[in-house]
Design the sequence.
């Protein structure tokens, strides 16, 4: 038996961010992880050929760049081997196979607007206006993103006192599709903007998504799209080294069997091998809520109403089908050198394509004409492949159920070869059987097998619907990272602010430090 101030269950980015923040303040911390490696949703493996490093899940590190607690810790992590690489200029490309020049998102707002203006000067000016608005709300956005969520009425109360505020509140209430239709005129620009907005796996006609544009569009220019040198996994590996450098312990191959509850208080964890690790002050679960409460806490320790909320928590119906490619050369996209210089591409044709795509998802059909997401990170980081060669991620969203009764284990490989790769070749014709040296396909079953927190093959920590956002995430009354079990805290993408690599476990740590009287938080 061993003792620590805090035990953290789950060695993903959020669990490690929480542990690192607590260790930094002098607490003794133990992190237990079921896999032989840390990382959770930020894992890099050689799954095709030796020397080709593929980010299997989370890959783009945008939101972590605006996490103030992470940035405070970053120099120490860099001293332990973490190196971020940012695009010098080209961030995201949107190729156009229908005769247009395509759109490139640059770090420069002026260059980006010039690219959009080739389709519509009016749309370019609207894009610039959204970007300009961000400067007025940037500090508030960071505060709201990296603090416990406010009351549901807070935003409405702040905006309802003026005509301009009411207009903005109306825009925020729109669906992503309605907002795009109201704000842009060119069909290709609309499709590009809608594709950006739906990245967090929301649906095009889901109301309340309009406000995402005022964050998604500007943030990429402010914070870039950095990636860790060597792979996404270098972030959690550096965090694990940090915890250990501060006197903590990170244990892999240590699966949890249950949380130890004594007199209504979390006092430690019991591992599957029977070993108990005592937590003198608190336990943190960075695991999804159904595992946390129904499996590891047990309903005997829960109020029936809370257990019912846990059972009804929705992870959604969207998964991915992803091809990890080892390539002899980088993809050469249509629309010229600037388009090919982008390491990251969002590939969409039209609004009709987007609407038909989501209609097929809703009816359990494999998308017949999917939009694609692709990342050739070796353009930024050559260390991820042998000299002169490249890796490529290419994927699309799919429903995690199939109306005809088949499974993604049965059709995933075939879908990648017969639908995803031919679609990619419409934009990057040099990605042929000759240039593809190896391929590994991911889908619902591979995701579930890899990580029990990828429930039903979902990767976003819980469906992003109004009933599961802000003060309702993960549950009403428990949005401030505390659970109904005393001294059991929650961290992870099922908590606010949701999925994505943001190291939001730092918020949980700040709540804990405040509760323990160690360091008052500034968000109450």
Sequence:
């Amino acid at each position: 038996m061993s003792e620590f101030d805090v035990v953290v269950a789950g060695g993903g980015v959020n669990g490690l961010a929480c542990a690192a923040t607590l260790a930094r303040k002098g607490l003794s911390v133990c992190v237990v992880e079921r896999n032989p490696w840390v990382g959770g949703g930020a894992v890099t493996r050689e799954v095709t050929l030796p020397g080709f490093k593929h980010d299997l899940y989370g890959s783009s590190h945008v939101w972590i760049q605006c996490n103030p607690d992470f940035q405070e810790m970053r120099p120490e992590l860099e001293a332990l081997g973490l190196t971020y690489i940012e695009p010098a200029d080209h961030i995201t490309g949107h190729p156009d196979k229908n005769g247009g020049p395509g759109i490139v998102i640059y770090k420069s707002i002026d260059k980006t607007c010039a690219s959009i203006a080739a389709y519509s000067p009016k749309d370019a000016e609207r894009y610039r206006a959204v970007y300009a608005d961000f400067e007025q709300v940037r500090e508030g956005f960071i505060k709201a993103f990296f603090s416990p969520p406010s009351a549901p009425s807070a935003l409405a109360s702040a905006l309802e006192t003026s005509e301009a505020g009411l207009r903005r509140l109306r825009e925020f209430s729109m669906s992503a599709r309605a907002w795009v239709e109201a704000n842009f005129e060119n069909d290709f620009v609309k499709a590009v903007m809608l594709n950006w907005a739906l990245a967090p796996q929301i649906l095009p006609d889901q109301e309340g998504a309009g406000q995402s544009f005022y964050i998604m569009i500007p943030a990429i220019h402010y914070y870039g799209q950095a990636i860790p040198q060597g792979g996404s996994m270098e972030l959690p590996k550096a965090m694990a080294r940090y915890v250990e450098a501060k006197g903590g312990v990170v244990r892999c191959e240590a699966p949890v069997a249950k949380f130890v509850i004594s007199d209504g208080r979390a006092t430690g964890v019991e591992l599957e091998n029977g070993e108990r690790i005592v937590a003198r002050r608190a336990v943190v679960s960075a695991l999804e809520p159904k595992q946390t409460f129904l499996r590891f806490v047990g309903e005997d320790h829960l109020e029936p109403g809370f257990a019912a909320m846990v059972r009804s928590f929705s992870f959604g119906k969207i998964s991915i089908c992803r091809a990890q490619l080892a390539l002899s050369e980088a993809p050469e996209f249509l629309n010229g050198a600037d388009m090919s210089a982008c390491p990251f591409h969002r590939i969409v044709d039209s609004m009709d394509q987007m609407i038909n795509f989501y209609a097929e998802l809703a009816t359990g059909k494999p998308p017949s004409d999917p939009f694609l997401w692709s990342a050739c990170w070796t353009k930024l980081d050559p260390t991820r492949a042998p000299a002169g060669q490249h890796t490529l991620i290419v994927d699309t969203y799919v429903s995690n159920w199939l109306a005809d009764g088949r499974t993604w284990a049965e059709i995933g490989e075939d879908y990648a070869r017969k639908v995803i790769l031919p679609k990619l070749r419409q934009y990057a014709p040099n990605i042929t059987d000759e240039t593809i040296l190896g391929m590994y396909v991911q889908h619902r079953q591979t995701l579930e097998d890899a990580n029990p927190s990828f429930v039903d093959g979902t990767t976003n920590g819980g469906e992003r619907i109004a009933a599961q956002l802000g003060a309702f995430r993960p549950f009403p009354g428990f949005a401030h990272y505390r659970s109904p079990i005393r001294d059991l805290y929650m961290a992870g993408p099922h908590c606010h602010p949701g999925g994505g690599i943001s190291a939001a476990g730092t918020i949980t740590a700040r709540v804990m430090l405040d509760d323990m009287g160690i360091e008052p938080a500034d968000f109450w």
